[in-house]
Amino acid sequence: MTANEDQEMELEALRSIYEGDECFKEISPVSFQFRIGELEETKAFLLDIMWPETYPETAPQISLDAFFNNRIGAETKQLIISRLEEQVEANLGTAMMYTLFEWAKENQEALMENHQPVVTAVTLASNSDMTANSPVAKKKEKKEQLTKAQKRRMTSKTDNKGELPRGWNWVDVIKHVSKDFLKYI
Q1: Close Cβ partners of 77 (under 8 Å, ≥ 6 residues apart)
Q2: In whole angstroms, what is the distance from residue 122 CA to residue 128 CA?
Q3: Burial tier of 143 (Cβ tally within 10 Å: 0-12, 13-18, 19+)
Q4: What order of strands is seen across the sheet that includes strand 31-36?
Q5: Any alpha helices (H) in the chain, and if so which ranges?
Q6: pLDDT digits (tens, 9 = 90+) for 59-76
Q7: What DSSP letter does each residue of 46-89 carry, written as one string?
């Protein structure tokens, strides 16, 4: 088989395996992103992998330069890339994307064991935005919803300015008083 046929077969397999998986993203037929860990985790990272024309005979290009990885230090990034390159060397000549992704998921803790989050203005701003928008902070008061019939009755009682006519509720008061008055006689 040629390299292009191997790539097509592996691409088809990746599409079927990771269909609907939010961690996997196909950028192009030869470029992929795979998120290791959950979005909220501080130890999560995003792998960018690009196939050269002669893949799988040559190693894919692995990068951690995505914006998602800005909070990861350079030493940790280098450690992750070197460990992944060891796996690439062991699997050279075969379809290895699934193997790399699964190996990275299984070894996430070991890869990120010395990880110290890099604090930048962006991470500080995003953290303060998250606390300001938290659902516990304030609950909005819900406006009372009226049915069509209630709205119709309300408009029939009001004038063109939306105001109730003077003495509109006196009729109800008089009816109430007259009923009670008759009880005591």
Answers
A1: 64, 69
A2: 10
A3: exposed
A4: 24-28, 31-36, 45-50, 61-63
A5: 3-17, 74-90, 97-106, 108-111, 121-132, 148-157, 170-183
A6: 888 888 888 878 888 888
A7: EEEEE--TTTTTSPPEEE--SGGGGGS-HHHHHHHHHHHHHHHH
- Rounded average pLDDT over 42-48: 84
Which helix or strand (DSSP H or E) is residue 25 part of? strand 24-28
Beta bridge partners of 33: 25, 48
Q: Which residues contact 141 (CB under 8 A, 6 or more apart)?
A: none
The pLDDT-based confidence of 7 (bands split at 50, 70, 90) is: confident
pTM for the whole structure? 0.56
| Maximum Cα–Cα distance across the chain | 108
Closest CA to 29 of 49, 58, 59: 49
Q: How many C-beta atoms lie closer than 10 Å to residue 9's C-beta?
A: 12
The two structure tokens encoding residue 96: 């290895």
Record the tokens describing residue 112, joined without a space: 């990120």
8 Å CB contact between 99 and 10:
no
Q: Distances from the Cα of 152 to the Cαs of 9, 95, 104, in angstroms?
A: 65, 69, 63
Q: Phi and psi for 143 in degrees, rounded to 5?
A: -80, 140
